């Protein structure tokens, strides 16, 4: 199997690796264990025999992609009898082109919103940095203020005030 565009070759090899193509299911079953090795085989009708021996796929419509058989085998000639007409392919192409244009228009409509959201994120990040700096500033002021020492000083002053009040009361009582 050869891709129409050579740039698809790595992706095609990754997907197919050692997959054989058979004209029909009978040929695929006969080839599945050929030469003492198990093979992954796909038929032109879309049926798949995996290396483990499981079978899947098939269907009423043959799916055709951007690949072609490069050999002139019987399988290649069987492939040429496909039911897709130029009109069908043109209609499919036009539909896909229209859908692509719709998606591109939707994408263009979303770009301004993306920019707005990016601006909001940037503004939020800036505000977070400002708040973090403000918190650091308050922590420094708190540490510089030496609050525990000031609390101790306040307690000392309260004690002095109580003593002074007691002296005033004693002095009033004596007079």
Describe what you observe in this structure:
There is one protein chain. This protein is 62% helix and 10% strand. The chain is α+β, with helices and mostly antiparallel strands. It is elongated and about 130 Å long. The protein has 5 helices and 6 strands, in the order E-H-E-H-E-E-E-E-H-H-H.
Distance between the termini: 121 Å
Residue runs with pLDDT of under 50 for 5 or more positions = 71-82
The strand line-up of the biggest sheet is 2-3-4-5
Q: Roughly how many Å is the radius of gyration?
A: 41 Å
Mean pLDDT, as a whole number?
Answer: 79
Shape: elongated
How would you concisely characterize the structure shown here?
The protein is an alpha+beta fold and 175 residues long. It has helices at 9-16, 25-31, 74-79, 86-145, 147-174; strands spanning 2-3, 19-22, 40-43, 47-49, 55-57, 67-68.
Keywords, separated by commas or semicolons:
elongated; 5 helices; 62% helix; 175 residues; single chain; 10% strand
């Amino acid at each position: 199997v050869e891709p129409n565009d050579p740039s698809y070759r790595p992706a095609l090899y990754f997907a197919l690796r050692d997959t054989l193509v058979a004209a029909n299911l009978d040929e695929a079953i006969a080839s599945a264990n050929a030469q003492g090795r198990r093979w992954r085989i796909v038929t032109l009708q879309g049926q798949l025999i995996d290396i483990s021996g499981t079978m899947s796929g098939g269907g009423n419509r043959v799916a055709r992609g951007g690949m072609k058989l490069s050999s002139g085998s019987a399988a290649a000639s069987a492939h040429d009898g496909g039911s897709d007409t130029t009109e069908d392919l043109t209609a499919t192409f036009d539909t896909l082109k229209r859908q692509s244009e719709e998606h591109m228009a939707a994408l263009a409509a979303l770009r301004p919103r993306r920019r707005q959201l990016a601006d909001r994120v940037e503004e939020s990040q800036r505000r977070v940095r400002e708040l973090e700096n403000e918190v650091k500033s308050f922590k420094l002021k708190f540490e510089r203020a030496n609050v525990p020492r000031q609390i101790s000083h306040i307690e000392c002053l309260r004690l002095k005030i109580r003593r002074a009040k007691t002296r005033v009361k004693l002095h009033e009582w004596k007079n």
